[in-house]
Amino acid sequence: QVQLVESGGGLVQTGGSLRLSCAASGRTSSRYVMGWYRQAPGNQRELVADITSGGSTNYADSVKGRFTISTDVAKNTVYLQMNSLKPEDTAIYYCAASIWLFNRKYDYSGQGTQVTVSS
């Protein structure tokens, strides 16, 4: 099992910044993908950004140039730095992790943290 605990959400004005953190504990693997998803009311959950154990990153077009995903391997933590926030970024943000052990993939998700951007 992997436990993911998010923090850092909140209320911010348009143009502001927030940094989300996701601390992972439990099973570890040298091969993983960690990422952030978000879901706004009435919308499907969408990928915001992810990062592989090799350091490759992937971003949704809507956040490119504004959001940055990073990891602190020593702390088993993944971060999402969000700058130039817009009202359309308002959503619940979920941390997710996929790890590979003995050629099997395991998927985990956190409980989510609310991000609200006021206009």
Task: Please characterize this protein's 3D structure.
- This protein has no helices and 11 strands.
- With 119 residues, it is an all-beta fold.
- Strand 5 and strand 6 (57-59) form a beta hairpin.
- The radius of gyration is 14 Å and the shape is elongated.
- The N and C termini lie far apart (40 Å).
- The model has no long low-confidence stretch (mean pLDDT 95).
How is the secondary structure organized here?
Blueprint (H helix, E strand, L loop, with lengths): L1 E6 L2 E4 L4 E9 L5 E8 L6 E7 L4 E3 L7 E6 L4 E6 L8 E11 L2 E6 L3 E6 L1
Parallel strand pairs: 2-11
Antiparallel strand pairs: 1-3, 3-8, 4-5, 4-9, 5-6, 7-8, 9-10, 9-11
What is the oligomer described by this structure? single chain
Q: Percent of residues in helical segments?
A: under 10%
Q: How many beta strands in the DSSP annotation? A: 11
What is the straight-line distance between the termini?
40 Å
Q: What's the shape?
A: elongated
In terms of DSSP E residues, the strand content is: over 45%
**Overall mean confidence score, pLDDT:** 95
Largest sheet, if any?
Answer: 7 strands, mixed
Keyword list:
single chain; 119 residues; mainly beta; 7-stranded mixed sheet; 4-stranded antiparallel sheet; 11 strands
